[in-house]
Amino acid sequence: MTEIFNIAQILGYCSLFFGLFSFYQKKDVSLKVLMATSTAFRSVHYIMLDSYTACLMAAISTVRTLISLKILSKYVALFFIVVSVFVGFFVAESLMDWLPILSTVISTVALFFFTGIMMRFGLMLGSIVWLINNFWVGSIGGVLLESFTIIINILTIIRINRDCG
């Protein structure tokens, strides 16, 4: 049975806090800064759960998200996609280990190729894949984060749409 208040899970709850707050943001910059903070906590969380592929993908996601604040280049996106898949070949031990890699690729495309509502749709798709992974590895904070992220993303998309129309 998974303990709900060990250090690993507490780090997952920290990730949950920053992640929830990030997707409530209407401004892309605020979303990305808070999202990078969330994924940094999540990286340490996953290593403590012995989920090394998820740890590395969260670390890559942290760097990628911070870089996407300043550079929205297809070449940079391609670099992060290649790095994610390359790392995956060396650390993935099962088919389920490819879920964080898939999510990282989806989120990379969303962050570098889209803005606003389309970016949030892409990030939401990545969240669905992370949700499956988090159930698999026993990440309580991760399951909560991705579940709430999907809901908050939908509500924020509605808010943005309402402000534009």
Q: Can you offer a commentary on this structure?
A:
Keywords: Membrane, Transmembrane, Transmembrane helix. This protein is 82% helix and 0% strand. The chain has helices at residues 7-23, 28-48, 52-67, 74-91, 98-113, 116-137, 140-164. α2 (28-48) packs antiparallel against α3 (52-67), α4 runs antiparallel to α5 (98-113) and α5 packs antiparallel against α6 (116-137). The protein is globular and about 45 Å long. The model has no long low-confidence stretch (mean pLDDT 93).
Strand content: under 5%
Termini separation: 48 Å
Specify the number of helices.
7
Silhouette: globular
H/E element string? HHHHHHH
Helix content: over 70%
Weakly predicted, low-confidence segments = none
Q: How many runs of DSSP E, i.e. beta strands?
A: 0
Q: What is the oligomer described by this structure?
A: single chain
Structure class: mainly alpha
Query: Which value, in Å, is the CA radius of gyration?
Result: 15 Å
Quote the average pLDDT: 93
Largest sheet: none
Produce the secondary structure layout.
Layout: H1 7-23, H2 28-48, H3 52-67, H4 74-91, H5 98-113, H6 116-137, H7 140-164
Helix pairs in contact: 1-2, 1-7, 2-3, 3-4, 3-5, 4-5, 5-6, 6-7
Note the main attributes of this structure.
mainly alpha, 7 helices
At a glance:
This protein has helices spanning 7-23, 28-48, 52-67, 74-91, 98-113, 116-137, 140-164. The protein is mainly α. Helix 1 (7-23) runs parallel beside helix 7, helix 5 runs antiparallel to helix 6 and helix 6 packs antiparallel against helix 7.
